[in-house]
Each structure stands twice: as structure tokens, then as C-alpha cells.
Amino acid sequence: MICVLIPRTGVLIAIHYNFTDSLRLLIVGCPFERRFMVMGNVFQAPGMKQSFVEDAHVHTSDAAVIRRRNYFSKDYSPPTVVWKLSAHDVYDPDLYYPIYETNPAKRIYRGQCFLINQRDFLPETGQACRYGTDKDADRVERLFKRLGYHVQRYFNVNQAMMQRLFHEASTLDHSCFDSFVCFILSHGENGMIYATDGPVSVEAVVSCFRGDRCPTLIGKPKLFFLQACRGTRFDEGVSLPLKTDALEEILVTKLPSESDILLAHSTVPGYFAWRNSASGSWFIQELCKILEDDLTGKQAHDILTLLTVVARCVAYQYRSNTGRPDSRSMVQMTDFSSTLTRRMFLTGSPRCP
Q: Do 137 and 47 fall within a single domain?
């Protein structure tokens, strides 16, 4: 058997040559990816015999992952192909998405992180300058580089460019990545996010990464974090009764039909999202702080657990201070919806204290 790793593409091809002077393509895939395609194709040069075609086959055990730094080592043993889940795996509450090794110095990343930072807007949009947003963007960029992502940062993007960026991102080959992350920092309305010259549908952005439009991200987590208003209402909050230690939680969600997508909003539908012009937005700053703490902690936690902590911190620790009676001492409730089918860890593999 001959194994060929095509430079720059990360694609591995294994070709088998047998005594019937026949060539057979056994597997094709990416050694960093957790699935390979088992091929039944047979290639023949003129004059080659055809007797082997009827029983040409490949065992699935031949299609397996080759470790990133050990492509052809003698101690290599094929691990389980993660796309094939046992009945036990399906019901395993601790099952998590594979986490690929990273080496930024060698341009080996966990995935792409798109960061769109909208600060200035055309006058006809009626949207004011978003002072403080650069603080958010800087912190997100630093953090996700530490997390092993290739951060692509964009500033003041118009509608046409935003649509083009997401179309191009969805057509990229994500085979060697374990996930995709997107941050959009902008103004917004319920269901819309603003480009510099007008609104863009959130659904249009997310739908670019559905399985039928982005096949190399099928079965992989796609995370979207949106810092934007979803309306104009202020949340005045409610006072807790003194004799109770319980708080009834109302979760406002609209789950997408696509699988393996997380959509995290800075606020619930219809409400204003707060941002400090000097220090950044409540949601993004608290999200980065929680992820940074988890990255350096003894035990990693999955993203849904961390987003719950973010929601609690924003709800309990932040109050607006605008100097205006109609918007003073307002609060904010973050919101997320998820169709993730496994636990997703951004800060590393699960580990015990």
C-alpha cells in the first residue's frame, strides 16, 4: 500500500497495488479530520486484468485517523471513527465533540473564527457610532487566538461584503478543523444585524453554514455570538422577595432547525443590549472573562455551562448608569439557543481536578 499526503491540502490518499496488476483507491480524507471516505473505485491501466473487480472491497477499519505529528509512525493504531456512534454513545450525556490539536506556529488551527466589528454607520441607517466596540474586538481576538483559532477580523463591513464573506466562509474547506466560530459586534433589531449601510438577516448569515450548504462542517459545532440590540425596550428588572432564595427563570429561545449550531445573543428579543463606551459591552466582556478563567482553571467546562454562567453574571452584576431617569439602573438578560448534539469545549478537553 502507498500512502500519499498531499501538501497544503491535508488530504491523505491510500492506494493499494495487488498481484493482479490492479490499483485500488482505498481511502481519501484528512488526517486531522475525524472521518474518512472509504472508496470502492477501481483504477485500471490498459491491459490490466479485471478478475478482481467483483470482490473488490475495503474494511472500514482501514479508514482511520492518523495522528497529527505521527503520520507514519510504527506505534500508530487506528482509532475509532467518530461518525459511527454506538447505542451507548447516543445516550451518553458526556459525549463531546472531538478537539483537534493546534500549532499556530505551523498554521494548524482548531478552526476559523470570523470577527466582524461594526463601529461606524452611514447616516441614512440612523445608527450611531458604537464607541467601545474596539475593546470587545481586541479581547475576542486575543482570546480566540489563545484558544487555537485562526481569527479573521473585519472592520466596518457593508451589506454586500458581509454577504460575500459568509458565502466564501461557507465554501471554504473546513475538513481539517473541528469547529467554526463567528462574532458579529454591531447594532441590531430583532432578527436583523446591521452592516454599515443597512440590516442583514441573522437567519441569512446562519443558514450559510447549514449542512447542505457547508458540507465540510457537517456534524461539527458552529458557534455564533451576536453583540447587538434586538429591540428598543429597556429591562427595568424585578425586585426579589426578601424571604425567598429562588428565582424563576424564563428562557426565551427559538431553536434553529439546523443541527450543531449555537446562537448566542447579548440580549433577549425586543430588548436593548448595553455597551460601555470605555470598557466595551456587558455580554462580550463577561463572555471573554468566563472563557479566560475556564482556560486557566483546573477543569474545563462545556460552552452551554459557561454561557449559563455568563447569563447569571450579566443579570446579577450589571446595571446601567446613563444619568437619564428613563434608562438608569436597567438590567440585561442574555439569550442562547442550541441544536448542539454533543458537549462542546472551547477551552480544552474535559479534565478532572
A: no
Asked if 45 and 115 sit in the same domain, the reply is no
Would you say residue 186 lies in a domain? yes
Grid cell at residue 142 = 486575543
Verify that 214 and 73 share a domain, yes or no: no
Q: What is the bridge-based pairing of β-strands 179-185 and 2-6?
A: unpaired
In whole angstroms, what is the distance from residue 274 CA to residue 279 CA? 11
* Full-model pTM: 0.71
Q: What is the pLDDT of residues 202-250, one digit of tens each?
A: 999 999 999 889 989 999 999 999 999 988 776 666 654 444 333 333 3
Do residues 308 and 207 both lie within one domain?
A: yes
- Is pLDDT above 50 for 31? no
Same domain, 211 and 117: yes
- Whole-angstrom CA distances from 116 to 20, 138, 186, 228, 343 are 57, 11, 8, 12, 26
Q: Residues 37, 113: one domain?
A: no
> From CA 274, how far away is CA 285, in angstroms rounded?
11
Residue 76 lies in a domain: yes
Q: Which domain holds residue 75?
A: 2-82
Residue 304 domain-assigned?
yes
Other Cβ atoms less than 10 A from the Cβ of 275: the count is: 24
**What would the pLDDT profile of 243-299 be if each residue is shown by its tens digit?**
433 333 333 333 344 789 999 999 999 888 989 989 999 999 999 999 999 999 989
Express each pLDDT in 53-80 by its tens digit.
333 343 444 443 433 333 333 333 333 3
Are residues 320 and 226 part of one domain?
yes
List the catalytic residues.
Answer: 187, 229
Write out the DSSP string of 129-192.
P-TTHHHHHHHHHHHHHHTTEEEEEEES--HHHHHHHHHHHHHS--TT-SEEEEEEES-EETTE
